[in-house]
Design a protein that fits this description.
Strand content: 15-25%
Strand order of the largest sheet: 2-1-3
Number of helices: 1
Oligomer: single chain
Structural class: mainly beta
Largest sheet: 3 strands, antiparallel
Length: 90
Amino acid sequence: MPTYEYECQSCGHKFEKFQNMSAQPIKECPKCRKNSAKRLISAGSGIIFKGSGFYATDYRKDKSGSSKSKPKGCPSANPDNPGCSNCPGH
């Protein structure tokens, strides 16, 4: 359930309300009690990535300056063939 921002057109009071997406917009201002509250359009919140597979957990350097983990190389690579012709894009 998102948090919606509202502003009263009468007194200018701004407030937030945690509502279902299907709920009707609030009309009454909690401060002046007039039916002049309007829902504001906001940018919303950012996306938060959790778990492994992201920069903060997999590629960030630790305090010693070395990477915590590095992506694995090509499984078909060897000293005679450092590149890989089996992988797409190579």
